């Protein structure tokens, strides 16, 4: 598969009518960058910085971070690279940021909340990112995870600006921020929807718990409605709305997400080829119609089925 991808030039992500939908990679280490480029990633839509430091008992130094971010940005000259500041807590605990025992860590001091409580660590990370940005030619975007209020959005974006970060945004993975997307987006340069957590928090189903796994389905119309809110707010504000949760790797759901207003999709690099091929078979008008069909269902399985039907050439 890798040899074939190297032989044929990979086209940028687009719909049948030519609408560009950049297809980006989710990465957890700069080591994955070469393969992502080979598989046609047009940049990085989610770089999960916490994976670099999972085994650290102390906060990483600015120099350690600068080296890692520089290596990442150097792999994408001239390309968009969205780096997420540390998402510590819940399924990704970091000893230097999460020390207190919490009964419900997914609802606790996680993501931006944990960073804000240890602001020095956030400031050091922004320092390292700004230094790596200055030393390279990638188009660096920086975003915060687990944002749940407009005030947190303003806090993060203004702090990022202090460090000269030109493009600062928020992840939409908590329903509160999706519902207020029209008030959030004027304060941010972009939003990126994390469908894994957005689904977990919308359906109140722990994403790591097998016994409730059937609820963890991003096809659920309640999740799709929230995504529609964010897509509409992005369209109205003229701000990009990306998707970086696993949902973007499901080719038919990718079409639905575009129909709901997503302007770029980020996924595991191995999923890029299938999503690229499927997008090319639908226009934006088709995607909107398919999304409407999914939204009209009551259940996740029915939404998928309705989308399949609406997407079939005989529909
Ligand atoms: C998400 O929640 O969808 C997401 C992309 O972030 P993570 O999976 O790292 O929590
Ligand atoms: Mg998340």
Largest sheet: 8 strands, parallel, barrel
Determine the number of helices (DSSP H or I, runs of at least 4 residues).
14
Number of strand elements: 8
Helix content: 40-55%
Instruction: Please state the overall shape, judged from the principal axes of the Cα atoms.
Output: globular
Order of helices and strands: HEHEHEHHEHEHHEHHEHEHHH
* Overall pLDDT metric: 95
Calculate the terminal CA-CA distance, rounded to whole Å.
32 Å
User: How big is the Rg?
Assistant: 19 Å
Strand arrangement in the largest pleated sheet: 1-2-3-4-5-6-7-8
Unreliable segments of 5+ consecutive residues: none
Our estimate of the beta-strand percent is 5-15%
The set of bound ligands, ions and cofactors reads:
phosphoenolpyruvate, magnesium ion
Structural class based on helices, strands and sheet pairing: alpha/beta
Identify the notable features of this structure and list them briefly.
single chain, 315 residues, alpha/beta, 8 strands, 43% helix, 12% strand, globular, binds phosphoenolpyruvate, binds magnesium ion
Structure description:
One of its GO terms (biological process) is phosphoenolpyruvate-dependent sugar phosphotransferase system. Keywords: Cytoplasm, Kinase, Magnesium, Metal-binding, Phosphotransferase system, Sugar transport, Transferase, Transport. This is Phosphoenolpyruvate-protein phosphotransferase. It is found in: Cytoplasm. Its cofactor is Mg(2+). The protein is of the alpha/beta class. Helix content is 43%, strand content 12%. It has 14 helices and eight strands. The chain has an eight-stranded parallel β-barrel with strand order 1-2-3-4-5-6-7-8, surrounded by four helices. Helix 11 (251-259) crosses helix 12. The longest helix has 17 residues, at 221-237. The chain is globular, with a radius of gyration of 19 Å. The model has no long low-confidence stretch (mean pLDDT 95).
